[in-house]
Design goal:
The protein has 424 residues and is of the alpha/beta class. It is built from 18 helices and 13 strands. Helix 3 (68-80) packs across helix 14 (312-322), helix 8 (181-190) runs parallel beside helix 9 (213-225) and helix 17 (379-389) packs across helix 18. The longest helix is centred in the last third of the chain and has 32 residues, at 324-355. It is globular, with a radius of gyration of 25 Å.
Length: 424
């Protein structure tokens, strides 16, 4: 009888108990370091505050910059009254063709043989993820990818989630604040034959340190000798030096030497299309027939991932790349953005080395290239700069050069000088 009463009371007891959520055991993930910097910057109301963490271009007034070529392209698109139908799985054909032309060049042998498999992607991140998944499924020689130390933080989880094992090769020399070329060569020579190697095509993120053209040729020789597979990440074509051809040197040289490569492209930085998420992933193949088979497998990867890519940003990029006048204007604007950053590097070097005579060697500031610079500042110096000077950057001393301008660069340099001297 007692057992029967207990059973009858059970539903009431369960209804009164606090419900246990299905997700109660899900742990909190670590905060994104860049997002944390931006949040701290926004919460700081000091008028001198500077955000050097964000990886997006800012103009001389510290504002986001929409390129005139982009505005004109949007006007042309609006006038054309295009529909909003789905794109094919691999994207807008005109865009993918022009993206390949921009990266590989008009004289590219595989391009002219119709032997480059290319798909539009969700910017560079999406391209890398498609590439990682393709290699995990179909690259026959290895499931390990070697990335430089350091590399863009998203590379590591991205490739792990793709099914690849991530290992590292030396790249940055903290003592010289430059390239550890001897370490890089030794690590690539010691990598197992057939391994995948991630290479930043230009404007290495986060260091801003690139190999010279001569060093790229040496890297190509080692990769050929060891039968390694090169996967290029080219997120800054044109944005690094101001020349789309110069920034594509490594990609084009490797292809000219007979390497088959994988390539990720992004149009976030060089066209300012950050929120439009415009990119491309491509592979060079041996023939048109092989390209068709690779294309079919890229579609199999993309279809369950996001079905097909967004339309508007691809139309913008394709309109610019297809129109000779817009293309010329865009190249001029890209060079203008690159030149502004180069000028900021030169000015910062002059302030630290000559005006303030800041202890240490600062030539790396102007020898590095692209949006980012590894300053050589340590964690404590970065921390005190945020707390005392309202200057926000990642704790490894990386800064976005685009966050500096004529109004704040002297204050930044003076603050760095005080932090290095321990006087802030």
């Amino acid at each position: 009888m007692l057992a029967i009463n207990a059973i009858r009371r059970a539903p009431t007891i369960l209804r009164n108990a606090a419900p246990l959520s299905t997700w109660s055991a899900v742990p909190a993930g670590p905060p994104d370091p860049i997002l944390g910097i931006t949040e701290a910057f926004k919460a700081d109301k000091d008028p001198r505050r500077i955000n050097l963490g964000v990886g997006a271009y800012r103009d001389e007034d510290g504002k986001p910059y929409v390129l005139n070529a982009v505005k004109k392209a949007e006007e042309k698109i609006a006038a054309a009254k295009l529909d909003k139908e789905y794109l094919p799985i691999t994207g807008l054909p005109g865009f993918t063709g022009n993206a390949a032309k921009l990266a590989y060049g008009v004289d590219s042998v595989p391009r002219n043989q119709n032997a480059i498999a290319v798909t539009q992607s969700i910017s560079g991140t999406g391209a890398l993820r498609i590439g990682g998944t393709f290699l995990a499924r179909h690259y026959p020689h290895s499931k390990t990818i070697y990335v430089p130390t350091p590399t863009w933080g998203n590379h590591i989880p991205l490739f792990k989630d793709s099914g690849l094992e991530v290992k590292y090769y030396r790249y940055f020399d903290k003592k010289t604040v430059g390239l550890d070329f001897a370490g890089l060569k030794e690590d690539l020579q010691n990598a197992p034959e057939g391994s995948i190697v991630l290479l930043h095509a230009c404007a290495h993120n986060p260091t801003g340190v690139d190999p010279t053209q001569s060093q790229w040729k040496d890297i190509s020789d080692i990769i050929a000798e060891k039968k390694l597979f090169p996967f290029f990440d080219m997120a800054y074509q044109g944005f690094a030096s101001g020349s789309t051809d110069r920034d594509a040197f490594a990609v084009r040289y490797f292809v000219s030497q007979g390497h088959q490569i994988a390539l990720s492209q992004s149009f976030a930085k060089n066209m300012g299309l950050y929120g439009e998420r415009v990119g491309a992933f491509s592979l060079t193949t041996a023939s048109e027939e092989e390209r068709k088979r690779v294309d079919s497998q890229l579609k199999i990867i993309v279809r369950p991932m996001y079905s097909n890519p967004p339309l508007h940003g691809a139309h913008i990029a394709n309109t610019i790349l297809s129109d000779p006048e817009l293309y010329q204007e865009w190249e001029g604007e890209v060079k203008g953005m690159a030149d502004r950053i180069i000028n900021m590097r030169e000015r910062l070097y002059q302030l630290l080395s000559n005006d303030f005579r800041t202890p240490g060697e600062w030539s790396h500031v102007k020898s590095q290239i692209g949006m980012f610079s590894f300053t050589g500042l340590n964690k404590e110096q970065c921390k005190v700069l945020a707390e005392k000077a309202h200057i926000y950057m990642t704790m490894d001393g990386r800064i976005s050069m685009a966050g500096l301008n004529g109004r704040n660069i002297e204050y930044f340099a003076k603050s760095v000088d005080a932090a290095v001297r321990g006087d802030l």
